[in-house]
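Lab channel / #folding
Pinned by the channel admin:
"Please post every new chain as: sequence first, then the structure tokens as a reply. Keep commentary short and put observations after the output so the thread stays searchable."

First post following the new format, from NK:
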Amino acid sequence: MNPGKRALVTGGSGGIGAAICRRLARSAVHVYIHARQGIAAAETLAEEITTAGGSASAVHFDVTDPQGTRQALSALPGPIQILINNAGIHDDAVLPGMRPDQWHRVIDVSVNGFFNVTQPLLLPMIRTRWGRIINISSVSALIGNKGQTNYAAAKGALNSATKALALELATRGVTVNAVAPGIIATPMSEALFDPADIKRLVPMARAGTAEEVANVVGFLASEEASYITAQILSVNGGMA
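Reply from TO:
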């Protein structure tokens, strides 16, 4: 589908990120699997993908560190043509009891991390006249969620940045979209939702899978999605 192209997946060692890495690797893309703390998991995933016949390698940097991020990206050979901004964190609390560091850290990873990673990659991507930028958002940005004002704000900003950047790049062969998952069966979501909550909140009465999110990302990263840009695609079982 995209032979010879290079993809970077931030937060690639986590549940959804790993599924996205595997999906892209099946399309003959070389995948750079980014991690900050989970570098061992990223290296294990890269080995798994390589053993299965794909091409992948792990990269390590902190998306909230502008200089460190720029240095790490400049060390990658060749332009990145598929960028998946998947790195994000939860630090939940109702706003009256939220500490300033909880607010700033969540915003820093999702919003400033988006800028720190994306901005240095844009001109090299534009010069190839082909690119896909896919930002991983959340249903929380669309309908809100109690205890996640910081997370909803961060992902809402990402949605708005998606639409604005898509307009800037629309004539350059680069599409920019976001995918907004709902409740997805990952270790993170299992700590937040019990089965009764899922049946109550999700019209389809089940959690989604990381692979279902990855399949949408894989489509948006393909040639077949060349006329889709500035969109927020929901993968949430009917929640919004």
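NK: The longest strand covers residues 174-181.
TO: also worth noting, The CA atoms of residues 1 and 27 lie 5 Å apart.
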